[in-house]
Design goal:
The protein is α+β, with helices and mostly antiparallel strands. The chain contains 13 helices and 12 strands.
Amino acid sequence: MHLARLIHLAFKSLKLNKKRTSLTMLSIVIGVAAVIIIMSVGAGAQSLILNQISVLGTDVVSVTPGYADDDGPPASVYGIQVTTLKKKDAQALAKILEVKYISSYVEGTAMVKYHNENISTKVIGADASYLNVESIDLVKGSFFTKADEDGVVRVAVIGWQLAQDFFGDDNPIGKKIKIKKETFRVIGTLEKRGSVGFENQDSVVVIPIGAAQKLIFGINHLHSIAMKLNSEQDVPFVEQQIKDILRQQHNIDDPSQDDFTVYTVANFIETLSNITNALKYFLAIIAAVSLVVGGVGIMNIMLVSVNERTQEIGLRKAVGARSKDIQEQFLTESITVTVLGGVVGILIGVLISGLIAAIAHYLDYSWSFVITLSSILLGVGVSALTGTLFGWYPAKRAADLQPVESLRYE
C-alpha cells in the first residue's frame, strides 16, 4: 500500500479515538520534551560555568598541594588536609620571569560578625597582589599592602554583598567586624562579581595571609598559589618551570611522586567540559528511558485497538487485503502516534528551555539558550524507534488474524 495512503488511513483511524490517541501521545510528549530540556539546560549551565571560569583569565596558573592525575581530583577535594605547600614555595615561584603577579592563599568558612549580626561566609587569606591576580577592582577604600601582610595587621576587604548585608547604605570603611572573635577593620569593598559555580563571590572577606594563618585558621601551610603571567603563550613553559622548581624545593626526583598539582584555566575548562558533557548525556539517556515506558503503553493501546477492530480486519482480508497490508496499516498508526508525540514534545521542550533561559537572563546570569540538532534528532529518532519496536507486535498480531474467525469475533 502506498505510504501516503497508509498515513492518511492512520490519521483517519486516530481521529476516531481522539482522547485515547492524546493519552497515548502524552508519555512520548513528556519523554521527548524532557530530553530537549535536559540537553538545553545542560548546555546553558555549561556555558554559564565556563564563561565565569574564563573571566578568571587564561593567563592564570595555579598550584594546589597534593597530586592529582587524570584519574581524579587531588586529596584536598575529599577534605584531606595536605600541608606540603609553604610560603617559601611561593617565594621560589615568584622568581620565574614570566610571572607578572603571584599570590598565596588560605581559605575556609568562618563566622563573621558586625554588632549583633552573624554571617557564616568564606574568609580568604591572600597576598597584597590579590587584586592583580584575580583581576578585581575595588568599589570603595583601599587594599592592604605588603607591610600589612608582613605585620599581620588586622584589616579586611569585604565583598559587595557582605557590605550590603552588614552596612546597607552606610560607608563600611573604618567599621570593625569580628572574624572568629578576632577584630578586623574594614578598609575596602570589592566590586560586584556574581557567582562562580555555586559560590557567591560577593560575600567573601579577604584579609592578609599572615593574619589568616595565625589568627583565623591556625596553620602555617598554604591551600594554593595563583600566578598571573605576562602572556597566555607563556602558560606551557611556566607550567614546566613550576614543576621543576617545586620538585627541587621538595626533593622529588620521580615525577610520579609529586606532592602538588599545577592547574591552568585552559585545562580546567577542558576537564569541566568533559564532566558536564558526560553528565548532560547521562541525564538525557535517563529521560529517554521514559520513552521506552511510553512505548509499553503504546503497545498496550495498540493491542486493545486490534481487538476492537478484529471484524474490520476480517472484512478487509475477505475483500482481498493481504496480511502485509494489515501489518503496515497498524505499524503506520503506531509510528504516526509516536512521531506526532515527538514533534509536540520538541515544541514544548524548546518553549520551556527558552523560558528557563529568559528567567536566567532576567536574574543576570550569562546563560546561553542552546537547542542542539543532536537533541532534536535524539528525541525524534527515539520516538520513531519506540513506535516501530512497540507497534510491531500488535501489527503482527493483526496481520496473523484469520478472515473467517475475525468476522465471527464479537
